[in-house]
What we know:
By secondary structure, the protein is of the alpha+beta class. The protein has helices at 20-28, 42-52, 56-63, 120-128, 137-171, 175-189; strands at 2-8, 11-17, 32-38, 70-73, 78-87, 93-103, 107-112. The model has no long low-confidence stretch (mean pLDDT 80).
Amino acid sequence: xxxxxxxxxxxxxxxxxxxxxxxxxxxxxxxxxxxxxxxxxxxxxxxxxxxxxxxxxxxxxxxxxxxxxxxxxxxxxxxxxxxxxxxxxxxxxxxxxxxxxxxxxxxxxxxxxxxxxxxxxxxxxxxxxxxxxxxxxxxxxxxxxxxxxxxxxxxxxxxxxxxxxxxxxxxxxxxxxxxxxxxxxxxxxxxxxx
Length: 194
């Protein structure tokens, strides 16, 4: 599913399904666009490639999941892979990998798959912090990346609380807690390559 958000002077003008002709008209009119691609098909990625002049290698990267964080510079835009870590209801770490394409003054494209990071707070913040609109696409990109980093802090706080609980149980000689601590060490080790 491709959603297109049109911004003019820092304000969200409209949110519509992706239509290449509408996006082309918006770009000519000076409207910045943020395309949010959720679980995109190969055909949808091809539409983005054609509509925004994205290089085939970055599209191929965006069709493969499980990549390390990176930044790649292309002549007209930048491509980023980032990871947001969260704890789910069962306190298991979850990797919300996101791919971002950005071209100054023109567009930001986010590509997300399950488990998905919630960018709702970034959208709301964009509406509140309109004085930064002159920063253009860079401001949208900053807000999205800031949302990812803020999620790390929330996750760290929850991990510290869980760690404190395990330490208390280990101190009380709870054998199950010692085993749980080892399990946490193994689960966290999976994310050491980010």
